[in-house]
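Researcher: I'm preparing a figure for a lab meeting and need a structural model of a single chain. I don't have an experimental structure, so a prediction will have to do for now. The sequence is pasted below. Please return the structure as tokens so I can convert it later.
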Amino acid sequence: MTSAGAGFSRRQPGCSFFVARRGRREDGFTLVEVLVSLVLLALVLAVLAGGLRFARGTWGAADKLDELAGYAMAERFLRARLGEAMPVYEHSAAGTVRVAFQGSGDTLSFVAPASNGPAGAGLYRYVLEAAPAQVLAVRLAPYQPKQGRGEADLSRHELLRGVQSVAFRYFGPSQLGGAPAWHAAWTRTDALPNLVEISIARDDREGGSLSLIVELRLLTRAQ
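Model: Understood. Here is the structure written out token by token.
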């Protein structure tokens, strides 16, 4: 009994040492584990940074495509509608008869057909101008003679954003039988111009300035 008890007492310190070592191992991490964790964290951060750069590039490309698509749509609209401006004659407020086309350096008004306008197919009066919020806008409404009708009745739509200024020029003879030339305003009341130039000033970040020349296909016979 005594020897057995003594033997048991000799094993006891060894067991206590083993248990103590396990306790210290569970309380912390080894240097190898810390290094592995740091390497994994660095890899995850590198992947996230690359993903963010890719996302920013994708968003930038999408914005550029939207911008180009907006200009393409505006150009198609202007070429289609302005190119079909009609030599419609109407009575002015002074009682005289004039063509329904008025062009200055910053505003252009004309009448043209549309197959899918807001009120369906038919003739529409259009007014192109630069709106205050850096927008190239068009105001339109189904065409009616101007008697008793103000331009406030025209609904406004945005064609192009990021516009600093818009300038119009007109090419054609300034009088019957005259030589065609470029003019800052169209003053003739009996005929349409041959060409209309639209110059759109924009910031370089928005794509820079744009210039568009539209041929008016429906002209009066007497030029």
